């Protein structure tokens, strides 16, 4: 299954904030959307999921496996989210429900999309917690989000996103709120899970060093437009856009391994 975005526009209250963005994500590919704050990368991801804020309107084309997503009803998009397309947000504290155990939250999408019984879904929730390397998963699933560390909460969010084995994962700056050590662990976990499942990945970040660890292709955005679209190795060694060169200068202050995602 592939994702094809063509001439995407997003207007918010009459102001154009994404202007003609185009890129493709072939089946099994790992593509990064990178740019500074306000570049339009997160709005692009939200448009794919049909989760744009009130007052925003998308134009152009977003095709998933040949199916046009722009114009689908909320119900139709909800059937795709969590089933065929998973999402991991930047801050799991706000993405997780504080009054439900994490096990119940992992099990919820399994019950909705796969029709499992409450008991079977609970058993699967433990397995999914184990899959994302949460310690003592039988106990973790009985806890509430506030009882977990930031890194553990992000692992729960990843477990929720991947529980139904989607074919596309969208990860919106999933490591930004974490310290460097935990960030590296989450990147390694995500990369391994994506490769194991053979799914496609859209990874959103402002950090070229981070992108080099998980994506093989990068789409650089600035002021709502694509300014460079190239393999990550090329972005690291021979960037053509001044915007990309600025991102590369910023990345030199971060520990990274050139070509680490290849």
From TrEMBL:
SUPFAM superfamilies in the cross-refs: P-loop containing nucleoside triphosphate hydrolases
Keyword Metal-binding: no
Top-level taxonomic group: Bacteria
Gene3D superfamilies the record matches: P-loop containing nucleotide triphosphate hydrolases
Membrane-protein topology: Peripheral membrane protein
PROSITE patterns the UniProt entry points to: ABC_TRANSPORTER_1 (PS00211), ABC_TRANSPORTER_2 (PS50893)
Manganese listed as a keyword: no
CDD domains: ABC_NikE_OppD_transporters
Membrane-spanning intervals of the chain: none
Intracellular or extracellular location(s): Cell membrane
Single GO cellular component term: plasma membrane
A Pfam short name: ABC_tran
Family recorded in the similarity comment: Belongs to the ABC transporter superfamily.
Name listed for the protein in its UniProt record: ABC transporter ATP-binding protein
Organism: Microbacterium allomyrinae
Organism placement in taxonomy: Bacteria, Bacillati, Actinomycetota, Actinomycetes, Micrococcales
